[in-house]
Predict the structure of GTPase Der.
Amino acid sequence: DTTDANTIDVSAIDDRPLAAAPPPVVAVVGRPNVGKSTLVNRLIGRRAAVVQDTPGVTRDRVSYDAVWNGRQFVVVDTGGWAPDAQGMAAQIAEQAELAIAAADAVVFVVDTHVGVLDDDDAVVRVLRRSKKPVLLVANKVDDQRAEAEAAAMWNLGLGEPHPVSALTGRGSGDLLDAILDILPEAPREAVEEGGPRRVAIVGKPNVGKSSLLNKLANQQRSVVDNASGTTVDPVDELVEINGVVYRLIDTAGIRRRVKEASGHEFYASLRTQGAIERAEVCIVVIDASEPLSEQDLRILTNVEESGRALLIAFNKWDLTDEERRRYLDREIERDLVQFGWAGSVNMSALTGRHLDRLGPAIEEALAGWETRVPTGKLNAFFGRLVASHPHPVRGGKQPRILFGTQAQAGPPTFILFTSGRMDASYVRFVERRLREEFGFHGSPIHLSIRPRE
Ligand code: GDP
Ligand code: GDP
């Protein structure tokens, strides 16, 4: 009975913000304790405060999806990071620089109770240099009286201060409107359609990221920054791998290892998150000579959740012996099953082993990431699937896939209109079958189920 499928209102597909380009990124920066984390919770509409009073508490996630007036953007919270007592201004400025480089727009938060301090000025200098759109927030304006103090912030030279109480929500609607106003229409990445593909090399410290980067950079012939009229962030580098030019995201961050090692862990995780966010494909470097760690898994999960193509580089292969390799196989079976769709290369940045396999593997992952399945083909597949493997009957009813469409590539995202709710296990089954049929090698895929009641 295809009539059912034919009556589906396909215009409903557009009711969700599933833009092909990644949503713009807003970084929230400022001194410790000005209320950044409280404000982020407010912006993403989460009432339960996850604000910690202990400074320097590390969190896994530093960026969150937000939607306001139907527009989607990503908020990067730099509030979990607290500098040491010494060299505070410099560290705040550096942290801000990092967040700003990864952002399309910046929300700069000042504590109206305390007023402007030297540390604030350090951030202001970074903001001016960055030329990114900035929105000045005078926080902790809990009532009318404090608004006069907020006006004093004009002298920072960042334009009109927006009085807000992150705690009570006062002024936060106006602030969200103002944020939408300064966000670029299209995120900057989308401008360089056809430019070099964006690759991030990520991984925990000491796995060999900078060694790999150096190897790749040394191999490169002369690569002109301006090859296709694209601008390159000062933190990025163009390298050539197997005759293809790629843009390596945040190479400055990889090279600046010493500071990272002595700094806060949050610092590294913010940087990793920013790089993943900006990349199309991520090379997650893992030290094959050491047991897989929690941190490795976290970074892999992060790449998957961010919807980026993934290539796993098992580095330091030269340090593995037969026994270690056998054990690694078991670890992969036990801990990495959920990344079975990802490609991997057993390599050594030191000896150059299998470095030549990176290029083809990157291309394969990108191809999987950008796969588009025509609607007709997709529904013919669903038709066969529903016939051969129907959903189990639930409460006398049998949920069915009525119609499906791929709403987006990079990563492949499918919307399935169904009659009734589907079991999670059935959705996983559908995902497995989709992969068997169409590949998507190296890419996560997303299924969005829309039951029609
Ligand atoms: P961060 O270090 O910049 O992320 O700051 P937090 O969000 O952790 O906030 C620091 C402290 O300021 C916490 O005790 C918050 O409850 C408090 N705070 C945050 N926003 C406001 C506000 O708008 N008004 C008042 N009165 N306190 C706030
Ligand atoms: P990063 O912190 O991830 O950038 O790691 P580095 O590139 O600085 O590497 C950390 C250490 O591992 C350095 O001493 C490197 O020389 C060493 N190293 C990196 N790759 C390899 C490799 O493939 N084999 C061996 N034996 N050592 C490596």
